[in-house]
Amino acid sequence: MLRRDPSSAQAEPAASPAGEPQPAPTPRKKRRAAIATQPVERIQRSLFGEILDWMLAPLLLLWPMSIAITYLIAQSIANQPFDRALEDSVTVLAQQVSDVNGKVVARLPVSARDLLRADDIDNIYYKVSGPNGEYVEGDVDMSQPPPEDDRQNIGTVQFRNDILHGSDVRIAYVQVDLRRSAAQRVAVHEPRLATVQVGETLEKRAQLANEIIKGVILPQFIILPVALALVWFALSRGLSPLSELQQRIRARRPDDLSPIDSGQVPEEISPLVRSLNDMLERLSQTIAIQKRFIADAAHQMKTPLAGMRMQSELALRQDDQVDVRRSLEQLAKSSESATRLVNQLLSLARAENQASQAGAMVPIELSELARTVVQDWVPMSFTQRIDLGFEQPGHPIMIHGNPLMLRELLSNLLDNALHYTPHDGNGSVTVRARTDEGGGLAVLEVEDTGPGIPPSERQNVFERFYRILGTPSTGSGLGLAIVREIAQQHDAKVDIANNPRSGDPKCPGSLFSVSFRLTPRTPFIDDIG
Fold it and tell me: Taking 80 as the threshold, does the pLDDT of residue 410 lie above it?
């Protein structure tokens, strides 16, 4: 049964109830949809402007708050001298109030009356009231202060704000005990109080507060632009090392990947310079690897290519079919060798670049991976008449690694073992996966019955293109270099020893062991499994 592609089905116009196709969407709608799906380009922000905004925004917000606080403080400062003058006036007036034959009398001398006259700006009012609030003298429209039960406030000047004749006034008032003598106070328990009030309008206070505000605020209008200029200059000077660093980097040659001197930059820029140096080091390593790969490939490919060219030219000059066939066979062997060399060079380059790929390490069951790789090499072992076996443990072995790279590692070990094991029908190669419980390691082993590797050569065989002198078998010398590179990326260790199961002293065989760290076991998950 054939199925239509959902995308093609959606692209077909829908049919109307009458069986006629509906019109396709207009080009304008398509353009709108395309515009809506386009990514929004981010606007590059300026570091200078960002710092300037964060410095000026609080400054401009705090400036009005500073003006408001200054105005409140100026009002408080302006009130203090005028309140003291009011206190003196009400004290002088209270001293002139007395009780004459049970009647409250205020005998104001000329000096006191002059004191209470209206000045050029403020209007001054006073009022004297009897014990029951009855009017004695002064401005009758002035209201009485709120009654108080606390006798300790008798004779103490107090202040309040009020409205008189439509104007705000500040009033100082005091309650005077008309019984002056101590004998009168003892004879009568309840005090006989008279209330004396003196008030004035607030014009002088406002003028003084405004003068204080002007004296404080006006200099700020001069200081603020100067402060902004200084901030601008300071930011320019503070960010100048970035400009110098930019000029130094631009002045470099294209092939100059040497580290940047971090001693010539401020401490805050040092982490950025260290990051750049790390990047330059990684870039230098990558370029060195590429150059080495190109040089190795060019050097190693010359021999098989020259042989192929020579064999092809020889075949063209031959007339005998037997000689032509012999040249073609040699040409096929040379091409096979060149193909194997190219594949190993590509594997080595891929292994060297794999470390830069993030997210390549995943949990892997080592024995299962080894079993699948061994199955891929079974046909080759049949062709070479070698007994290829695999010993699988009875439990899973979990490690973290890159599956593709680990398959490449084991494939190169198997290729090396099959390559050097005799093809006489008696040779054998065994792959084994096991755990070293004492050290918490997972071990992958490949053993063969070949000629073995002398202890003095076991470190050298991991070098590129290194081959032991006198080895009759041909090879590129890259297989074990690939194994070492992949093992290093997995923090694994590669060891070489003689095959302990080989009984032939002339062919002691080799045992390659690759040790990985085991993945920590999760009891709950493992028990469920």
Answer: yes
- The Cα 227–Cα 225 span in angstroms is 5
Mean pLDDT computed over 514-526: 68
Q: 499 near 448, Cβ under 8 Å?
A: yes
Residue 200 dihedral angles phi and psi, to the nearest 5°? -145, 155
Question: What is the reported pLDDT for 471?
Answer: 61
How far CA 50 is from CA of 44, 55, 232, 237, 354, in Å, comes to 11, 9, 12, 16, 39
Q: What are residue 528's phi and psi, to 5 degrees?
A: -65, -40
Closest CA to 149 of 190, 93, 95: 190
Task: Please report the pLDDT score of residue 364 as a whole number.
Answer: 92
Cα 66 from chain centre: 36
Q: Which domain holds residue 168?
A: 70-209
pLDDT at 522: 46
pLDDT at 492: 92
| Beta-sheet strands, E only, within 275-324 | none
At 452, give phi and psi (nearest 5°): 80, 175
Q: Which of 78-87, 141-150, 486-495, 497-506 is modeled with the greatest confidence?
A: 486-495
Sequence-ordered list of residues with C-beta below 8 angstroms from that of 136, at least 6 positions apart, any chain: 97, 104, 105, 106, 128, 129, 130, 194
The answer to whether the beta carbons of residues 519 and 363 sit under 8 Å apart is: yes
In a domain, 503, yes or no: yes
Count of domains for the chain:
3
Residue 228 lies in a domain: no
- SS3 (DSSP) at 404: helix
Half-sphere exposure of 133 (CA within 13 A, CB side): 7
pLDDT mean over 195-216: 84
426 and 385 both lie in a single domain: yes
Q: Are residues 80 and 121 in the same domain?
A: yes
Average confidence (pLDDT) over 376-405: 90
Q: Give the CATH number for residue 200.
A: 3.30.450
- Per-residue pLDDT tens over the stretch 61-102: 887 888 788 778 877 887 888 888 888 888 888 888 888 877
